[in-house]
Amino acid sequence: DWVQASLHAGQRRARDELTRQVTEAMRHPAVACLSHPTGRLIGHRAPNALDLERVFEVALEAGVALEVNGLPDRLDLSGENVRLARDAGIPIVVSTDAHSVRGLGNMQLAVATARRGALTAADVVNTRPLADVLARWR
């Protein structure tokens, strides 16, 4: 199984509390990836007050990947944060946030955002053979 954790409630809480909740979830042994880490909705909701530096530290410690989400309203992580995560050595998953077949078209935006962050195929978890991915995240 592949488990992605994401925050879908309480995004306006204090920075320390929000960061603690997210990093605790990332430490759960079943979690392989943190989805749309900042929780932003472009034009609707600013990014969460999450301490991304701390999230990056815990991602490295726990072996958790971070998602580049291609939903047009999200594009989260941003290109700048993708680059910072890559430079920190954090594995990146490029994903669609699809809730239907139609949403699979969001992959183009996810890839474009990953490229904005200077990722190559070698930096992206879901370009690797499935056996390699499952061997690392099981």
Write out key terms for the chains shown:
globular; alpha/beta; 5 helices
Name the average pLDDT: 92
Give the amount of beta strand, in percent.
Answer: 5-15%
End-to-end Cα distance: 8 Å
Question: How would a crystallographer describe the biggest sheet?
Answer: 4 strands, parallel
Name the helix and strand elements from N-terminus to C-terminus, one letter apiece: EHEHEHEHH
Any idea what the radius of gyration is?
14 Å
Number of strands: 4
Low-confidence stretches: none
Physical arrangement of strands within the biggest beta sheet = 1-2-3-4
Q: Structural class of the helices, strands and pairings? A: alpha/beta
Query: Number of helix segments?
Result: 5
What gross morphology would you assign?
globular
Helix content: 25-40%
Topology:
Layout: E1 3-5, H1 15-26, E2 31-34, H2 52-62, E3 65-69, H3 79-88, E4 92-95, H4 107-116, H5 130-136
Parallel strand pairs: 1-2, 2-3, 3-4
Helix pairs in contact: 1-2, 3-4
In words, what does this structure look like?
There is one protein chain. Helix 3 crosses helix 4 (107-116). A four-stranded parallel sheet has the order 1-2-3-4, with helices on one face. The longest helix has 12 residues, at 15-26. It is globular, with a radius of gyration of 14 Å. Strand 1 (3-5), helix 1 and strand 2 (31-34) form a beta-alpha-beta unit. With 138 residues, it is α/β, with parallel strands linked by helices. The mean pLDDT is 92. The protein has five helices and four strands; from the N terminus they run βαβαβαβαα.
